[in-house]
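Q: How would the structure tokens look for this protein?
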Amino acid sequence: MLKQFCWLLLITAGVARGQEIFQKDQVDKPAEPLGGQTMLSEFLTHNVRTPFVNRAQGVEGKVEIKGVIEPDGSTSSLVVVRSLNKESDEEALRVFGIFRGWKPAEKDGRPVRQWFSYSLNFAAGELESFNRVAQEFDFLFDAQYRKVKGGTEAVYLLRVPVDPNGIPAGRAQFSTLAKGRWSVSNELETAWITAKSNILSLLLGIDEEQLKQYVDPSDALIVKVETDPFETGLPEYIVTSGGRIVREFLPGLFSKVSYASGQTAKVTLRQSGVLNQTISWYPNSILKEKYYTQKINDSTSMEKIMQVFDSSGVQQVVKGNGYISGGGHPWGEGEVRNGYRVGTWRSFNPDGTLRFEELYEEDGKLVSGKSFRDGKEFQYTQHETGPRYNGAMREFYRFLASNIRYPAEASRSRIQGRVILSVVIEPGGDISNIEVTRSAGPLLDEEAVRVIMLSSGKWIAGQNRGIPVRSTYSVPVGFQLE
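A: Here is the predicted structure in token form.
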């Protein structure tokens, strides 16, 4: 019986794929992207990755593909009919292979298969300071560590080797110019770090239980190049062992996170010093939401919601006005007016229990909120608060001053400077995952790590909707000789 059922499934699938394929002018309603051409164009803008070889060699042009739009909105039988190069062809096929946001063609009142074609343009773009022969970036800096293009201002040369996808590989090296000659190169650390699930979810900005939608934690690597104090402008990456980019991040400019399929899940773009735009998509390629985040002060920001769709492509918020329900949006369910949340908003857990409830004024300001976890209620008047030392920050600096032991060898060698550490403050106030993000030399780095570890347990964790959460924090530790 089971064998007969399996054969039935195979036959049914074969019949579906064997249906007649129509041309655009042979159907009653041609296939089209859900949300129209504008929606597809935006999807392509944030999903197409110009091959690194194109940028390195100045290759640009068009790739034309054709294929079939299936009745379920997916594509099949994709082929290249006009080639640019191997890498561009593969990228065009990849992007249209993951796009599932088609409204299928209709004929005689039923969805049918339809041929389609599309021409995708690849612009080379600029690739500053890249050495094609050595497959590396060669950056020049002046005495104040500012990037320069050459000439008499150059004092330091920083070399960063990359792989065929432009991701740092191997060890970066820097040299100093003295008396017209470059010194022997000194190596800088390039780390490929395996991170725990809790750290990965923190970096991706998602709940830990969602992680499998984005990456297998055992296959994720954080690529970190220690180039301080040099600012290269190269992104930071989280990648898989196979080279798929999970997260691309350039502090202060942009961040992009991708699903396990390779489709972009969310992109955040800096619009100004205090304004960011965020666009996200469902796993089925449908636009999910588009909103702006404005920083009010160091502890407060406000979101202006412009567009929201459900997973079937039905628009719930148009030009900042509407009502959001379902869809797993971060704000929950409620009314949006002029881009702001107004009135009562609620969010529910998958089992239907209340996750949080919030009340907003007409201008979008949060009046109060209460969230629920493990049978406990947490009240709050701010969505998020950052971690802080148990007491005023001046108490923390007093703690540092009374506990730092200036390394004797560093003192004799007159080594001084500022070490910047990135730490994770755990919900209980403990410190974990200490990383040196700006070095002042091994001796001072080691002492900075030691003294910060002494403060573990003396912190008040950051909060999300009143609940203590794990959060990152940057700690500067200064060393100065009298």
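The chain is about 15% helix and 45% strand.

The first helix runs from residue 2 to 17.

Upvote if useful.
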